[in-house]
Amino acid sequence: MESGEGVGGPGGPDGPGLQFGCASFNQDSTSLAVGTKTGYKLFSLTMVENLDCINESAETPDVYIVERLFSSSLIVMVSTTMPQRMNIYHFKKGTEICNYNYPNNILAIKLNRQRLVVCLEESIYIHNIKDMKLLKTLLNTPINPSGLCALSINHSNSYLAYPGSATIGEIIVYDANSLNTVTMIPAHDSPVAALTFNASATKLASASERGTVIRVFSVPEGLRLFEFRRGMKRYVSISSLSFSPDGQFLCASSNTETVHIFKLEQLGPSGGDEPNTWTAYVGKMFSAASSYLPAQVSGMMRQDRAFATVHLVTSGQRNICTLAIIQKLPRLLVATADGQLFIYNVDPLDGGECMLAHKHRLFGTDDDQGEGKESEGSEVTGPVQACPSYAATAALPAAGPVTATLTGYSEDGGVKKGEVIPEHEFAAGPVSLDDENEFPPGPGRWCSRLSKVLQTLLCLATLSSSSWVTPRHSQAR
């Protein structure tokens, strides 16, 4: 899965005492790369209790972009000392493969097993990753000061998404293999702030600068499939979006204390079976009531809310999140700008508040906090333990593909003629791809609240027959 933006930027994250300038998960969320003032660190994410540093380099200072290609030895870095130069390294051999210079500062780099994309403020460069030949330069793209873009990890459908406008939420989907524009999606009213593809490159999720609504579109058609409401009380800055490996869930983090997980499931036909959960029953009631309401209100009521959440104790700082399978169980990982990694258990059947499984420091040692103890700044609403339904969940057949056969780079096999980076065949076989209290209260409180809400909405619908004035804040998406 494409893991979204990294923490930090050319100037590094704000705040005193921070030791690093960026963080990014690799494409299958099996490792975490961290750019530091002295170089970079690369951590393995195959265990919950242990965070192993598998590589560390102090050769390049002030790293603000660092990306790893899956589980290969290919590392791409950019430093604030030379923000117009991209360096590509083979970290196991400790050698530089190549470097490239660009006319302006590099804002983002995305890569899969076919393409490497370099994003500047007003242009995008597409390289063939095997020989680093420049295939296409997209000039005069809309001003993109954050370098927002997304590249699908599926190399057979190598789609690139980037903002199509600096003033409204248009998204350009570009085929990086055939080098042609696929479609333009009118996604939001305000400029786009976050983008990500699912692993199979059949879905694209987006959020705008307002941060209240997250939408999912089909690729390449560009049809709207899902719409999720993160919140209505305030505008927020969405810092990352990420699909689960099977594409059934989508997580979103922002500058608030809440990380949301949404479930991508289509509601059955109106004449189908009766809902078997209280949440489904309430959803059906709202759906029925929405047919009597003005379009502005009924559209808002049809937006799904979070399936699961995590509440961090701090807010206002950048962070990135991803969904992964670690030790055969679904996990949510959150890396924060103050140098911490939180690993949460996710219940894919019941959702709800996720339980903190472990917390790691990206600098220093976890022993400073005590083994298995929950430190200050990692508050959760329940004990640190596994969800009781996990054993049954892990035994269930997967809802979608969680493995894929991937081609990549050779660690020792040499370079074919004309290739800068050698071709790799995995000897071991397929690689495992491996805010506000928004959850509804208990059923007893739902009854009284639902009755009051429906009465209010029906009154509004009656008034709307003569006129309807949309409050300014209700237009937030």
Structure commentary:
The structure is a single chain. By secondary structure, the chain is mostly beta strands. It is built from 4 helices and 34 strands. The longest helix is centred in the last third of the chain and has 22 residues, at 443-464. The chain is globular, with a radius of gyration of 23 Å. Residues 9-18, 268-280, 295-302, 368-415, 424-447 and 465-477 have low confidence and may be disordered.
In a nutshell, what does this entry contain?
The chain is mainly beta and 477 residues long.
Quaternary structure state of the chains depicted:
single chain
Give Rg in angstroms: 23 Å
Q: How many β-strands, per DSSP?
A: 34
Give the N-terminus to C-terminus distance in angstroms: 25 Å
Task: Describe the global form.
Answer: globular
Count of alpha and pi helical runs: 4
Helix content: 10-25%
Give the mean pLDDT.
76
Approximately what portion of the residues adopt beta-strand conformation? 35-45%
Largest sheet: 5 strands, antiparallel
The strands making up the biggest β-sheet line up spatially as 1-2-3-4-5
Low-confidence stretches: 9-18, 268-280, 295-302, 368-415, 424-447, 465-477
Content-based structural category: mainly beta
